[in-house]
Amino acid sequence: MGYTLPIVLVVLLALFFAVTPHLEPRLLRLRARRVTEDLRARHGFRDGSKAAWSGVTGTGWPPFHYGRRKCLDGELIGSLYGLPVRIAGYEVVTTGTRHRYGLAVVALPRPLDWFEVRGERPFSAARIPEHVPDGRVTLGVADFDAHWAVYADTSDALLTAGSRRLVETMLDAPARLNFRVRGGDLLLWVRDGWFGAAELTVCLGAALGALGLPDRSDV
């Protein structure tokens, strides 16, 4: 009898460590499904396709720079702020752990030079080097530089990167979002997915505002 309780505790602890890695991804998927349902109900989004994402996921840039068993789910298309938007969830496996991201791509009204803002450091590990592009811009604002990394390599993009508008917009953003402009697309991504459709919408508006696009308050 004296050994029974320790054995039970060891079994329960083993079950906890065995189940936990599988439980979190399921909870994140459930939350993602609620976001897609909300986007359908509130903003009229409809089914999208995986094929539409091939040009984005094939770049090898964060968050697509590591892992295996990469997959998309919950693909939607719709419109926010008067612009075409694609939404999806993205999952990747590395060292036996599944990572999830929330993605959004906005078709911009005009192509812009490459420009990137990171509120989260891209995932790195022993065999996954940190993905750091050239063109890091330091803005000299302590609160901003401590939490955000900005990259640009052309004069037009540098004007946007060094603007007070970018600093103010990102400091007011509801999440540490990441976004990249590449040609006519604006990609947003966030680790663990979006908390809700409202957060996604506000973050998207913040990224558009940081780029100096016209005010688009109608969502």
Compile the SSE list and pairings:
Blueprint: H1 4-43, E1 46-47, H2 54-57, E2 68-80, E3 83-94, E4 97-118, E5 136-137, H3 142-145, E6 149-152, H4 155-161, H5 164-171, E7 178-191, H6 197-210
Antiparallel strand pairs: 1-2, 2-3, 3-4, 4-6, 4-7, 5-6
Helix pairs in contact: 5-6
Compact overview of the structure:
This protein is an alpha+beta fold and 219 residues long. It has six helices and seven strands; from the N terminus they run H-E-H-E-E-E-E-H-E-H-H-E-H.
Could you characterize what this model shows?
This protein is α+β, with helices and mostly antiparallel strands and 219 residues long. The chain has one domain (4-210). The chain is 35% helix and 32% strand. The protein has six helices and seven strands, in the order αβαββββαβααβα. The protein has helices spanning 4-43, 54-57, 142-145, 155-161, 164-171, 197-210, and strands spanning 46-47, 68-80, 83-94, 97-118, 136-137, 149-152, 178-191. Strands 1, 2, 3, 4, 5, 6 and 7 form a seven-stranded antiparallel β-sheet that branches. Strand 2 (68-80) and strand 3 form a beta hairpin. Residues 10-19 have low confidence and may be disordered.
Descriptors for this entry?
7-stranded antiparallel sheet, 219 residues, alpha+beta, 32% strand, single chain
Give the strand tally.
7
- How many strands, what sense, and barrel or not for the largest sheet? 7 strands, antiparallel
- Number of helices in the DSSP assignment: 6
Helix/strand/pairing category: alpha+beta
Q: Which ranges are low-confidence, i.e. pLDDT below 50, for 5 or more consecutive residues?
A: 10-19
Mean pLDDT: 85
**Number of separate structural domains:** 1
Q: SSE order in H/E notation?
A: HEHEEEEHEHHEH
Looking at the structure, what is the overall shape? globular
CA radius of gyration is: 20 Å
Helix content: 25-40%
Classify the beta-strand content into a percent band: 25-35%
Termini separation (Å)? 65 Å
